[in-house]
Amino acid sequence: xxxxxxxxxxDHTIVLEGLRRILDPYCEIVGTAEDGRAxxxxxxxLKPDVIVADISxxxxxxxxxxxxxxxAGNSAKILILTMHPDATxxxxxxxxxxxxxxLKSSAASELVTxxxxxxxxxxxxxxxxxxxxxxxxxxxxxxxxxKGHDLTARQREVLQLVAEGKAAKEIAGILNVSPRTVEFxxxxxxxxxxxxTTAELTQYAIRHGIVSA
Length: 213
Known about the structure:
Elements: E1 5-9, H1 13-23, E2 28-33, H2 36-46, E3 50-53, H3 62-71, E4 77-82, H4 87-95, E5 100-103, H5 108-119, E6 124-125, H6 130-139, H7 153-163, H8 168-175, H9 179-193, H10 198-207
Helix pairs in contact: 2-3, 4-6, 7-9, 7-10, 8-9
């Protein structure tokens, strides 16, 4: 039986090495990426069957990367492997196109099971958060969206890069836009979120899992 082709995304080399050791007997590891933008590019180039990615990655977090990969029409199943046990993160990951959600505190065998399940076209949620995720999804239609959900994809990208401490010129180079465009997006984000300083933007990004503390 052909082994599934897996792409790994995590900003810690030691985690990538550990994942490779766990999955090597069951999967073909076709590549690794240490930031979200590299993950999107690798997904486009390598066309894996499954992508296992962390949420907290630099330049572009795992949830935004999942959105971009899905939007590009990539057929890979996306499995989020994270330390975040909060059902809010899991719910947002599924809305972004993920098929599975596993915690880094789970047993190694659970990750293998999750990959097998998503390849069968099923959704896998670790039992550690499954009940809370279902509760959140059931309540979602009756709860108004937060201001953060009103941000565009480009605004979320700018927000993450600002929160990572990058200057407008540096962000402009990463996004292939002008520094003036970056400043415009930053102004609009602050206006929409009711924030007034870069420090407040950074705190918001940390609180909502856009960047790590």
